[in-house]
TrEMBL record:
Keywords: Disulfide bond, Membrane, Signal, Transmembrane. GO terms for molecular function: transmembrane signaling receptor activity. Its main location: membrane. Coiled coil: none annotated. It comes from Crocuta crocuta. This is CLM6 protein. One of its GO terms (cellular component) is plasma membrane. Transmembrane segments: none annotated. Residues 9-113 form the Ig-like domain.
Amino acid sequence: GACTRLCFPGCSSISGPTSVSGPVGGSLSVRCSYEEWLRRYPKYWCKPTCFRKIVETKESDREVRNGRVSIRDHPANLTFTVTLEDLVEDDAGTYRCGVDTSWLGYTGEPTLTIKVSVTPGEL
């Protein structure tokens, strides 16, 4: 669809899977790619409305862990990976991977919405 909000370099500046799944007790990884101009900005993973980020990188700290969730930025190949471990059914839902460009003053941050499914483990 047409981009209704302010279009800065590349409206969909982030690409990746639209859905991922993993088994209860297992883990899953989401790899999001971003454009070159976003390389220096913090990358994050959140649940909409994303008032609080679950994990977020800093320029000095490219790998951050929060409980069972970790995020790792790979600026050399313009990707970052979010890993959820020890999955529980409550982890299922909608998440976003994104790049924090808020200080640039843009209204819409580059984000990608991803549906996470957790499948029942084998008994």
